[in-house]
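Thread amino acids onto this structure.
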């Protein structure tokens, strides 16, 4: 039965990917770039859903894990001339290693202590990167994945190339994460999140389970970081500010932190917010400083409203209503 479901979901992802790529060839450059950004956020948010929604570990500094993946990919590409595919693999492995080390500490922490530790990492990592010349200091380093193959045609632009890479990476990542969450590991994470004592009595090593969750989540986040640096063309401390971690957390809460099926909602919202903020600022004619801070204000407001009114996300909220409606009809 599980194999049947996996095959069914794989077929769905293949069809969805085919439709997505066809769409990418029929829209303008701005929309293609936004599509690539949505794919990046889909990968990043899914890593938070895995970590927080399923294993119950809160990370307020997930942007630091994205930065580890981005810097690793850039160094592998620039200094060792690694192929594009290999740079993304290196980003996943480097971030996963960092996540494993952080997870080992996280296994002994919980609640605000764990959140504070990840927050400190997000604040301190940019300063640490500035200490090593290989990372380029404040200016950062370039990350160039190269031009699209000529066989794709002259009209196949660089942004379309980004969109194809990011879209394919997002589809593969979501498929893998979805299967992991349905596996024994996902069940163990949910058991530990619900009741650690009961999970331990059932034979689950809660500490190892937490470390594994942090490792996989960090690996997925590292891939998102490499994809993000690909779309902006550079890796620098300013590309991974603390605001990025809060934005990703907002996207996860909006998606429904305990369900993977709403991840697109959070990703589209995060990409749309800057455009909406710019339109609002232009309409009301405010100062440049207010325009710069407006997206952050909108993200913070959206997080508060989501927690107050749809804490489980719109998808899970809809499922709950449908279940209640079905139960009433049955009775």
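Threaded sequence (331 positions):
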């Amino acid at each position: 039965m599980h194999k049947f479901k996996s095959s069914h979901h794989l077929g769905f992802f293949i069809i969805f990917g085919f439709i997505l790529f066809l769409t990418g060839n029929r829209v303008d450059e701005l929309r293609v770039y936004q599509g690539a950004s949505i794919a990046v956020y889909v990968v990043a948010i899914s890593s938070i859903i895995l970590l927080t929604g399923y294993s119950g570990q809160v990370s307020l500094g997930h942007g630091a894990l994205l930065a580890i993946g981005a810097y690793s990919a850039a160094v592998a590409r620039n200094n060792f001339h690694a192929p594009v595919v290999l740079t993304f693999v290196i980003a996943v492995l480097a971030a996963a290693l960092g996540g494993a080390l952080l997870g080992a500490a996280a296994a002994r922490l919980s609640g605000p202590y764990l959140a504070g530790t990840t927050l400190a990492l997000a604040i301190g990592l940019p300063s640490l990167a500035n200490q090593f010349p290989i990372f380029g200091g404040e200016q950062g380093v370039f990350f160039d994945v190269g031009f699209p193959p000529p066989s794709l045609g002259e009209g196949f632009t660089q942004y379309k190339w980004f969109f194809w890479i990011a879209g394919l990476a997002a589809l593969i990542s979501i498929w893998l994460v979805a299967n992991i969450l349905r596996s024994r590991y996902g069940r163990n994470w949910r058991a530990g999140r619900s009741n650690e004592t009961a999970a331990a009595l059932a034979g689950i090593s809660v500490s190892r389970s937490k470390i594994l969750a942090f490792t996989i989540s960090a690996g997925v986040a590292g891939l998102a970081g490499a994809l993000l640096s690909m779309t902006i063309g550079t890796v620098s401390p300013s590309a991974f500010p603390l605001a990025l971690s809060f934005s990703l957390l907002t996207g996860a809460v909006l998606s429904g932190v305990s369900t993977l099926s709403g991840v697109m909602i959070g990703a589209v919202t995060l990409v749309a917010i800057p455009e909406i903020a710019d339109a609002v600022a232009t309409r009301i004619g405010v100062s440049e400083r207010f325009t710069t801070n407006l997206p952050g204000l909108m993200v913070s407001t959206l997080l508060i409203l989501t927690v107050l009114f749809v804490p489980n996300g719109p998808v899970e909220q809809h499922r709950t209503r449908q279940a209640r409606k079905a139960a009433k009809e049955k009775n």
